[in-house]
Amino acid sequence: MVPTSSANALALDIDGALPASELHVTLAYLGEVSDVDINLGRLVEIVSSFAKTVNPIRLNINGAGFFENEETAVWLAVDSSELPELRQLLVQYLDSNNIHINQAEK
User: Fold this and answer.
1) pLDDT category of residue 52 using cuts at 50, 70 and 90
2) How many CB atoms sit inside 10 A of residue 94's CB?
């Protein structure tokens, strides 16, 4: 979870922008919500359970841009030496709970 003070500093103060509480870092893309064959509540439980087992990490912002064909969706490039291990741990945790990441995404 992004700390509230950091999220508030990063949130865009423009009409239609996501509130700070909805900022996130994508560690594992499961696909569109409509295409994922799992109960969303169960997924939240699993990811919340995982989050309780790991320590927070520090991220550096090193770039920004827009998603292709979506001038209203802004992304920030983040980096941390701890990020690859955190992502791998999450993917393994999801796998152990029968939630599988597309091989191209691993």
Assistant:
1) very high
2) 20
Domain count, the chain: 1
Question: Is 106 inside any structural domain?
Answer: no
Domain with 19, as residue range(s), is 4-96
3-state SS, one letter per residue, for the chain: CCCHHHHHHHCCCCCCCCCHHHCCCCCCCCCCHHHCCCCHHHHHHHHHHHHCCCCCCCCEEEEEEEECCEEEEEEEEEECCCHHHHHHHHHHHHHHCCCCCCCCCC
Q: Would residue 102 count as lying in a domain?
A: no
Q: Name the band, by pLDDT with cuts 50, 70 and 90, for residue 106.
A: very low
